[in-house]
Amino acid sequence: MPCRLDQSTHVRQLVTAIRDAAVAHSRAVAVAEVLHHDISVENIMFKVDENANVFGYLIDWDLFLHLGRATSEAQLERAGTWQFTAARLLERPRNKEPLIHNRVDDVESFFHVTHWLALRFTPHSMDGSDLAQSLHENFDNSYVHPGITASGHVYLTKQRASNLVSGALVSGPGFLNQGIDEVLYSMHLVLCQRYKIVKARMRALRPFQWDREEHVKALRNLDDPHWLPTLLTDHLDDHEIDWESNSGFVKHTLVLLADGQQAET
Is the per-residue pLDDT at 227 higher than 90? Predict the structure, then answer.
């Protein structure tokens, strides 16, 4: 029977399911030139066979997009689960021209899905109030700007893009399972480069803030539709990564914030 990702019992099981979904995504792009367009927690399922082998599935292709037709006319209304949508698509546009959802936006969504699940269900050192605040800022803090579009789109605050650049919400929680910690670090290392400003004046900044060689390498990786499934497979197959310690799923208690943003316990 298919299971939801939040029904995983082991961190490795979770990452295997996400890896399989990423493989399906990359094959759909390469073979059929089709983009899923709605990578979310609800749209990745998995099964476990009698030998404890895990098989992940990418489901619900109702919002798929033909890459050859990925124009502004084809995307008059933004689609997808906005909590996991690429940060660039959820920030207020500088002009009225709609942003085109592309393949790398879907890849970024895989990161947000993995990150959210790691924060909610894997062992880490954040307490309930800090976790609730971080989840709210990175995944739920939004506003509606009816003046931009007739439909009054939801826009995410800049916190997600800022967190992608700084890596604060990847290193900060102190993930206790080495596997998920290294997966998130490796994904972030590449995806953060989408949001680092590349201008001549940046060369004057300290090296850790911007590195041209690292930036070019990351963008080259993102050009490869097989980058994400390969990265996840390499981590799963790496015998030097400890996937077993602190591997069980836990449901963290979220402490209610002052304005009632998180009520789950």
Answer: yes
